[in-house]
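User: Structure please.
Assistant: Input sequence and predicted structure:
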Amino acid sequence: MKKIDMHAHFFPRITQKEAAMLDAERAPWLATEADGESGHIMTGDTRFRPVYRALWDPALRIEEMDRHELDVQIVCATPVMFGYRYEAAATAAWAERMNDLALEHCSYRPARLKALAQVPLQNLELACREATRAKAAGHVGVQIGNHLGPRDLDDAHLVDFLVHCANDGIPVLVHPWDMMTDGRMKKWMLPWLVSMPAETQLGILSLILSGAFERIPETLKLCFAHGGGGFAFLLGRAENAWHCRDIVREDCPQPPSHYLKRFFVDSAVFDDHALRLLVEVMGADRVMLGSDYPFPLGEQEIGKLVAGNPWLGDDVRAQILAGNATRFFGLSS
């Protein structure tokens, strides 16, 4: 079956000098080892994350796609690249540069590599402008973080950006970043294991319970990464709360389950039972193959969870592996 991985990351080979144009102390750049096979994403002089060549080398990416029998992979920025904390004009120039580098990365095999753009989300006008420019340049959608500091997706500024994307036909992937923590989650990657799924669930419920979906055109193509975090498992809790507490439903005219038709999720849940629940809750037409490649917390054998599940019929398997992403991003079948 055809396979489209719609959630994979890249990071271009930018130098510390280039990053300093955004911020000399904290902007991200790539330090590679002498062998060229591995390196670190850096933030200023600090090591942020160990990485390997597939993150920046499209030739190796294609080799690994062939090994995983992937037909198409959609790449997006590693979230540390977003630049939301900086002055908007500087971030706009940074986003344009990163987006051009993403297209350069994909030009190695343009039929098999597609890109999502990043935008200076802290400024509505500049974000909308870059999203539209990137679409015209060849990006198949945009990726945004799930919040801007204390402002969640129900914030009017972020809702207006989603409205723009709906009106301009720009698909949106929401990725958690800058995870909530009060210092208790110090070890074992707990911010990634606990806060990251919670951030995604928070983004979904903020759109639902605030009534934001009532203000966003139904034409918006919206997807949440990592299987929607804890949303599918905890939907029943939100549903019960909506029916039992007026303060939960005061801004939301329909129960949470009514809004399942308004967004998609990827399949990066890593467990047979979790995938089955996700498909049962969201519907087979709302789940797309996503791996989080090439990071260690991603699916190591891309597509195996979906392709290897006997309880998924062939039609459903084909939908999740490629059919849904083809329609979502307007790709050629």
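The chain has one domain: 4-329.
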